[in-house]
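Bug #77: duplicate submission created two jobs. Keeping one. Sequence:
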Amino acid sequence: MSINFSPCVVIPCYNHGAMMAGVLSRLSPFALPCFIVDDGSDSATQRQLEALANGNQNVQLIHLPQNAGKGAAVVHGLTMAAQHGFTHAVQVDADGQHAIEDIPALLALAQQYPDDLISGAPIYDDSIPRSRLYGRWITHVWVWIETLSLQLKDSMCGFRVYPIAPTLRLANQVTLGKRMDFDTEVMVRLYWQGHNSHFVPTRVTYPEDGLSHFDAFKDNVRISCMHTRLFFGMLPRLPALLLRQRHTQHWAKQQEVSGLWGMRIMLKVWQYLGRNAFSVLLWPVVAVYWLLARRARAASQQWLNRVKTRLAEQHRPVPPRLNSYFHFLRFSQSMLDKIASWRGELQPGKQIQFAPGAQEHLDLTSPQGQLLLASHLGDVEVCRALAQLQGDKTINALVFHENAQRFKQIMEEMAPQAGLNLIPVNDIGPETAMLLKEKLDQGEWVAIVGDRLAVNPQRGDWRVTWSQFMGHPAPFPQGPFILASILRCPVFLLFALSQHGQLCIHCEPFANPLLLPRGNRQQALQQTIDRYAERLEHYALMSPLDWFNFFDFWRLPDADDKE
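Kept job's structure:
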């Protein structure tokens, strides 16, 4: 907490005289001293601003002789604020698009983090021009690359609180962008100097009669040049930025924190940009993840080395691009398949093909319930497309994942027609078995993975069976196979692998039913899991980059493992 915390408001203004009275009226309840920087406005605006300043003792007007740009105006305002003894400045745009009522929330964070930049995280309504929305997302991706971090959620919002002293030191050290490139550049460079950014969700509107000074050609050129400077400026800082990440949350944890917000954003970007444009953006984003995710990258390399060893032992060729970056990229593409599945864009016969015999085994017209034994090899989301084959068929996916409830909620919000019902569980008990038995009796299908342990078991209480997998013993959960034996229904193995640019569904019978006799239960369970592990390896070698277990699969996780 800062002992000396003295905030004010800085408003850069260029020909927004007609809107300034409304902005000052909304600011008046906060009784904050206000510096209006007239950035070379026309004579009519100058007269309006002078009249407002003369009638308000909290307002001080600064005239710039000619238009220098928003960034230059903000720096002038911060300089004047520093001379008057202020420590922090709330930047508010003069066009009235910001939710000024959120200033107390911004200032509260500024008091809590006095050396950091506090910014609004915009929540837009339908008034935002689509071209501006697309451009913002391109900038977001570049900022994540330039900082090797996902911390900066939005670098273009002009509603923020600057720590005045660090910002002016930065402005004296480097030449910052003076126009629409200022907001992003100052945030990135402050981050480089150790000043984090914190965000407050805030609504942003684009008034119908609003005046925009954004020049589509000139400002896009400026922004492109800025990102070029920042990218090459990032390269010599790369070791320091990577070292900094070791003292912050793992990238996967950061993404978990974003929760529903992040998933909603993914769906919105898909809706506005489409899959092809979204796919192009993945390449640099995945590169950032690949650099930051040290443990996941090591697990990927371990997996690929074991794949190469097994292929060599079987005298089989090594597939092209068998490296950890393309492994990460394939995983990200599977996330796109997830979104396509939710949106109903994965169509059998188009994006999806069936391996010989697979479609015959997947008889969704059968009134009998069936259990699909899947894995984290390939796109499990293909179940959504399978449900499309028979419009009234429901497939229930049992998921052992602490974030599964968020996926369930977002699917219900954004894709209620998905035909795939997620059932989040932490363990398999009698209640789970009874629920699934009821669904099978109704003719529904159940999908469960056989390669992932429960999330939070007690230390030493892992109910696993060890089986040879890729030449080494690996722990497999007993729960899915015991559940399959209790349900007494047909069991099929299901894999959806990326082959020849399409998803190819492989399906084969596994048991009908799966029997674990009481007399030799452990032996039968061992044989069952050995057979599952053998088939999992068979399909994994067909498409190694479809392996989505980014951890050391061959050891039990520690109960206190943070990553």
